[in-house]
Amino acid sequence: MLKKPIYFDHAATTPLAKEALEKMMPYFTDMAGNPNSQHIFGREAMSAVDNARDTIASIINCKPNELYFTSGGTESDNWAFRGAAHALKNKGRHLIISPIEHAAMISTAKALEKEGFEISFMKVDGEGFVDLGHLKSIVRKDTVFVGCMLANNEVGTIEPIKEIAEIAHANGAICFTDAVQAAGVLDIDVKALGVDMMSMSSHKIYGPKGVGALYIRNGLNIESIITGGHQERMKRGGTTNVPGVVGFAEAFRIAAAEREENAKYVASLRDRFIERVLAEVPFVKLNGPADGDRRLPANADFSFRFIEGESILFSLDLAGIAVSSGSACSSGSLEPSHVLLALGVPEGLAHGSIRFSFGKHNTFEEVDYAVGVIKEAVERLRNMSPLFKAESEVKNV
Ligand SMILES: *Cc1c(COP(=O)(O)O)cnc(C)c1O
After folding, report:
1. What's the CA-to-centroid distance between 153 and ligand 1, angstroms?
2. Residue 219 is part of which domain span?
């Protein structure tokens, strides 16, 4: 039996690293100054924020003054997309994103459309990869913004951002990437990627929740969306979340130092899991890339035919296994995931999808236990499904 529940939902959030928590603690109490205050407490806080900025800037290979702290990935995505659209609207009002972006981008696209901007979506193939030829065919003279995530949060597809940025730049547009899922896993050197803006979030890389960052290349002026005081070089108002920023930087430092080792270990958990599920569970489809090197090491996403994703999720939860149906953001709604639909997964299968996302604290024992639970749950749920009975009788003839 299980001693404690198993967490396979690291793409939704990760537990805070103990080292990061320790670094944060003094900034809640003894060193709780406002970084903008003109006294010793303020200077202490500002120096902590400066150090955090230096740490993250050196990991992503930018200048510290190109990095802006925000409240998280959602705000960074909103700021990059809306801020660029507004700042560049006299140059053009055509914006391009992928159809598999996070809700933070998709919802912003809808809002910008209402403001009179025109949004086009680049095509993705059955594994979620952007079709570069299609992108080339839809960029226009009035295209000012091309945005695509570095890695997808639901099916783990790692996108060819460098090539996407080249196409954007060749056509006079800027390129933005959402690196929230890629940070701590892939090398996210902004110069090597060639992007003009990049989003990051702390709580997906073992840092605290409610803090993130946006890289904005020097020379690129985008509009502010949070107007206020002089913080973040007058670009983003609001008193800096000092403990949050300190914890974010420490988590990022650890993630960068352990990046290759962790990615290798987590990928080995994923590969064992995928191999066993495909071999031992009938009527199952792996969503996203088949090639493990082009898929996030932590991600496995399956569609189980004849069953609703929610039913499997509840069965796994009862057995102490925490997973996500679709993405955590769209679950709770009855709509199938926009990501799976964009990949061409039929609606029936899209409804039966479950995302497993592994982390550095997971073990092979947990993976094997989960496979056993899935086999049992899937068989039981299918035996209750009239659709499955009808289909399997046909198959048996
Ligand atoms: C989680 C996530 C976000 C949102 O980040 P928050 O810090 O939770 O607001 C944005 N994009 C992707 C790809 C994500 O996985």
Report:
1. 8
2. 18-254
